[in-house]
């Protein structure tokens, strides 16, 4: 199928833009980088989010151990206040401004802040709260955890005299409890409005730098790569064995299998490098995302082409080719943008609003493709059913001379159409199951995210991503089974007897320049004078296999 390989050319300029724009850039993944980031006013505090990741408890209590430890480390953290704020202070004063680094688990979120007389919740201690709760005015309200008195963790950083900047001492906070950990830098002093921060924090799990939500996916991609490898071995052994009988549709299936294997290997390499170094080069992740977007696009176009009967009830897509190419190119761009937003430069275990916004076009295009696929599949099934009924009717009303002389060819053709009809019915059932499973999983995904706003179920969140890869692979296996390369592949390809019911536009594009009777791939097997004998032998072999 030529159009499946032309999608990349259609979006070649877009790929070049993505590659060139990211070639010299590196994103530090579990190494969170802050570059002159501004504190934002939230309630009665000035706040800067430092990161949010699922971290497992350290396996080793030895701080000198290199493996098995889980921690958050602060490196070269520097704060700059405004010149006006610095000028207001005396050079001789020791403490002229306080910034606090607060680390807490999502489960302990209510231990930060408080409320006086049931009013609005405050992050910083106010005079009323100081009287009621005994907190220290001008500092973050911290209520000790029921299980760990030193948690949430609060680290203090002071400005001295009228200094314009202050640097935090490099510190390492060990993680002793598994959970979704959050880091915030908070200033309660109104004079610190406009403060900016630079530096980095290093977040590490016992097994590496991968965030907890992503860690299981590295192992998952190993298993998926093995599954694709097995499917590739089975498919390509048959593919090479029956090379001369391969259909254009089967070339496309081979391309999707190859891209799927390549994608799984790239994802594993990306995650493995991320886990070892804590760094995620943008160019590597961008390539993985691009290969995945191409694979998803070709997979959907493959489903659409199969549903339209490409190679089975029609030799080409005719006038629909440009429309299929257009929807394919559009879907590729939407999928590429969504995956780049989700994966390239991703640090935290919390998805942002950008993913939701970019996910809408992707979801709309998926819904449109599903509708188009089922509409086309319905027409293909109807066309095959009409052709089958027509041939059976001819057999039943034939005269004596016809029954004695020519009914064998009709029986052969009727059987072939019947096999095509059976294949498409099985494909239709598999597709219906996949769509039902997709809708059910989307419902579950919405419920999962709606009931977990603070990502406390991060340890099982990887399943949301993994499901779609499993479903895509399962549907690909069904297609491989139904259209597996075999000696009889060409006999079940497009035949003039089932391809007569195209619309006028498609019929003109398909028959232009062809003579009558020259289109049927089935009839090409009957060029010699011994067609009857050959067909009998072929059908005998098919009956044995079936």
Main β sheet profile: 5 strands, antiparallel
Number of helix segments?
14
In N-to-C order, the SSE pattern is HHEEEEEHEEEHEEEEEHHEHHHHHHHH
Strand content: 5-15%
Radius of gyration, in angstroms, nearest whole number: 32 Å
Helix content: 40-55%
Coarse morphology: elongated
CATH class wording of the largest domain: Mainly Alpha
Keywords: Membrane, Signal, Transmembrane, Transmembrane helix
Transmembrane segments: 220-237, 249-269, 354-374, 430-448, 460-484
Membrane topology: Multi-pass membrane protein
Domain GOST seven transmembrane: 216-490
Relevant terms:
single chain; alpha+beta; Rhopdopsin 7-helix transmembrane proteins; 5-stranded antiparallel beta sheet; disordered N terminus; disordered C terminus; signal; GOST seven transmembrane domain-containing protein; GPR107/GPR108-like
Write the SSE topology:
Elements: H1 2-10, H2 12-22, E1 26-27, E2 31-38, E3 40-42, E4 45-55, E5 71-80, H3 83-87, E6 97-105, E7 114-115, E8 121-122, H4 127-133, E9 153-159, E10 165-167, E11 171-174, E12 179-187, E13 196-204, H5 215-241, H6 248-277, E14 280-281, H7 282-307, H8 321-343, H9 353-397, H10 400-405, H11 407-450, H12 462-482, H13 504-511, H14 531-545
Antiparallel strand pairs: 1-14, 2-13, 3-4, 4-12, 5-10, 5-11, 5-13, 6-9, 6-12, 7-8
Helix pairs in contact: 1-8, 2-7, 5-6, 5-12, 6-7, 6-12, 7-8, 7-9, 8-9, 9-11, 11-12
